[in-house]
Prior knowledge:
Elements lengths: L2 H4 L3 H7 L11 H10 L1 H15 L9 H20 L11 H23 L6 H6 L6 H27 L11 H25 L3 H14 L7 H4 L5 H8 L2 H13 L12 H21 L9
Helix pairs in contact: 4-8, 5-6, 6-8, 6-9, 6-10, 6-13, 8-9, 9-13, 9-14, 13-14
Amino acid sequence: MPPARENLPAARLAAEYGLTVSGARPPLLEYARRLWSRRRFVLAFSRAKLTAQYSQAGLGQLWQVATPLLNAAVYYFVFGMLLRTDRGLPNGTYLPFLVTGVFVFTFTQSSVIAGVRAISGNLGLVRALHFPRAALPVSFALQQLQQLLFSMIVLFAVVMAAGSLPAPSWLLVVPVLLLQFLFNTGLSLIVARMGAGTPDLAQLMPFLLRTWMYASGVMFSIDGMLKGRPEWFIRLMQSNPAAVYMDLMRFALIDGYGASHLPPHVWTLALVWAVIFFSGGFVYFWKAEERYGRG
C-alpha cells in the first residue's frame, strides 16, 4: 500500500472498498429481502423440526392430533360436565365449540412456546452460519401451522359428528388461518427477541399462556358467561386476539354459532391484530439482529 494511504483511517478504507462490519444489521427492507431469499431454508427447517418433534414417540406424528384431543377431552369433562360452562350456547354445540377453541388456541400457544426458544435454543446454528435470524421464529410459526393443518382433519370430523355439515362458510377457515398465522408469527418474533436476552422467560411463559387461555373463552362463551356484566367489559374480553380468531373459526364451522356471538367489526379486529403484531414484531426483532448469538 502506498505510504500516503497507510495513514488513512480504517473506517475510510473500509468504506472505500465496500467492507462492512461482520454481523451488522442491514436496513429493514434489505433484511426483509434477505429473509425472503431464504424461504426454502425456512420451509425445510420447519418440516425437519416437525418430523423430529415426535420421532422418539411410539405413535410418532399421531401425537400432533392426540395431544389437543386429549386436552379437549379433559376440558370437556371438567368444564362441560362438572362446571356446566356451556351456558349461552345452542344445544349440542358445546363439544365442537370446545374442540375448535382448543385446536385454535393451541396453534398460538405452541407458536409462542417454540418462538421464545427460537434463538436461545439454536445458538450453535446462530453462531455458525450467517443468515437473517428472523428465519428461526418464522420457521417455528410455520411448523405450528403445518401441525394445525394436519390436525384440522380431526377437527372437521368432530364438527361433522356433532351435526355441522360442510357449508360455504367453511371457506372462511382459509382467511382466518392466514390472519392468525401472521399474528402468531409476529408474536413469535417478539418473544424470540425477549427470550434471547432473558432465557428464564421460557420457564415463565407456560403460566402466562395458561392465564391467557382462561381469559380467552376457550372453554366457555364469553358473552354467555359474562352476561349481566358491563357491555364495555364484555366487548373488551371479546376483542382479545385469541378470542377473535377462535370466534371466527367457530362461526365458520359450527351451525348455530351465529353472528350474535361475535364482537362488532370482528374481521377488522382480526386484520388489525395480524398487521400490528406481524409488522411490529418484525421491526422489533430486526432492531436487535446484530446482538443475537453474542455473549
